[in-house]
Amino acid sequence: MLLFLIPVAHAQTLGSTNILEGMLAGTNSVVLSVTPPNATWTATTNDIWLHLSAANQSGKGSTNVVFTFDANPGATRTGVLIIAGQTLTVTQAGSTYVAANPLTTLVSSNSITPLYSPNGVAVDRMGNVYIADTYDHAIKKWSVANSTVTTLAASVDTEGDKSSKKEGSVIHRRVPVSILSSTGEKPWVNRVTYRV
């Protein structure tokens, strides 16, 4: 009778390799999958703002590894946890970070003044948003005071109405492609002229 010993493959996998955190102190976790089920693992960090409790520094089998992090008083920072030989990168927002929640839609496609391929925006000191609406050949302004959109400037055909032109006519259209804020008061417009 021959007896063969087949080595058991060991595998450790993290549910994520990158985690983003807000600037405040908190707790988070990552799933650790271990094969075989009784395999042991360890977890460490060398970053002073990341912490593992004693119960989360080593163990046996698959688990949810819990870690904590300190509040971030400075710039955005990145730290590393090594869990079962796998790297988990934790990026924490800096103290000047402002969450974008909730997001606000300024102009939707079914609004009274819809946009047709907006290509650039600028914001003035008052919070008004200027939009280069390329396919509508216009510069539009969303007003923070009343949440309305108005057309500030629009291109017209330089040789009359396009629908009345015969084939082969040359139509010049100015197409806004971007808006640059100069001093925050009034934006500068970058235009491209197309011939049709």
Summarize the structure.
The chain is built from no helices and 15 strands. The chain has strands spanning 11-14, 18-21, 26-35, 40-45, 50-51, 58-60, 63-69, 77-83, 86-92, 118-123, 129-133, 138-143, 148-154, 172-181, 187-195.
Q: Can you describe this structure?
A:
The protein has strands at residues 11-14, 18-21, 26-35, 40-45, 50-51, 58-60, 63-69, 77-83, 86-92, 118-123, 129-133, 138-143, 148-154, 172-181, 187-195. It is an all-beta fold and 196 residues long. 0% of the residues lie in helices and 47% in strands. The strands form four sheets. It has a five-stranded mixed beta sheet with strand order 2-9-8-4-6, with no helix packed on it. Strands 1-3-7-5 form a four-stranded antiparallel beta sheet, with no helix packed on it. The chain has two domains: 11-92, Immunoglobulin-like (Sandwich); 118-195, Thrombin, subunit H. The termini are far apart.
| CATH topology (level 3) name of the largest domain | Immunoglobulin-like
Strand content: over 45%
CATH class placement of the largest domain: Mainly Beta
Helix content: under 10%
Please give the domain count: 2
Number of strands: 15
Terminal Cα separation, in Å?
87 Å
Class derived from helix and strand content: mainly beta
Radius of gyration: 29 Å
Number of helices: 0
Provide the residue-averaged pLDDT. Answer: 77
What does the secondary structure layout of this molecule look like, with pairings?
Blueprint: E1 11-14, E2 18-21, E3 26-35, E4 40-45, E5 50-51, E6 58-60, E7 63-69, E8 77-83, E9 86-92, E10 118-123, E11 129-133, E12 138-143, E13 148-154, E14 172-181, E15 187-195
